[in-house]
């Protein structure tokens, strides 16, 4: 979805080409040319923004007394990191899966896995925790993908099916 195009608002106020019948109070019909819609999708853009989701999570966490942590995305690039080699390798955008420790791993789920296994400074991964939980993560990912295929859920941009 192109949000930049949705943000633009039509400058001119125009009427529709076709007339629409509008019922009046006395029961008679009157032919009226209604106004064309100006593109104003502010609320739908706001509801899909990642910043709003983070703000909502922060307010809900503080409301329920749960700690809320933010990771510095410039220091800890979870989408580029490989915990088995300890290197940052920038993948192409069309690469949906990575091969880590001989296992095929989906990129977004692996980034979430690495973010869950950060050290106390929130700037680097905890290698020991990553190595301990990686096999469990791979099993959970495989069952998730199998269940999605079985139920017919498709996410082409993430999983490729």
Can you put this structure into words, describing what you see?
It is a single chain. This protein is an alpha+beta fold and about 160 residues long. Among the domains are: about 45-70, no CATH class; about 75-150, no CATH class. It has 5 helices and 6 strands; from the N terminus they run αββααββββαα. The chain has a two-stranded antiparallel sheet. Strand 5 (about 95-100) and strand 6 (about 105) form a beta hairpin. The chain is elongated and about 75 Å long. About 5% of the residues are buried. The model has no long low-confidence stretch (mean pLDDT about 85).
Task: Briefly say what this structure is.
Residues 13-23 have a biased composition (Basic and acidic residues). Residues 1-23 are annotated as: Disordered. The protein has five helices and six strands, in the order αββααββββαα.
Output mean pLDDT: 83
Question: What percentage of residues falls in helices of 4 or more residues?
Answer: 25-40%
Shape by Cα distribution: elongated
What is the strand tally? 6
Provide keyphrases for this structure:
alpha+beta; two-stranded antiparallel sheet; 5 helices; 6 strands; about 40% helix; about 10% strand
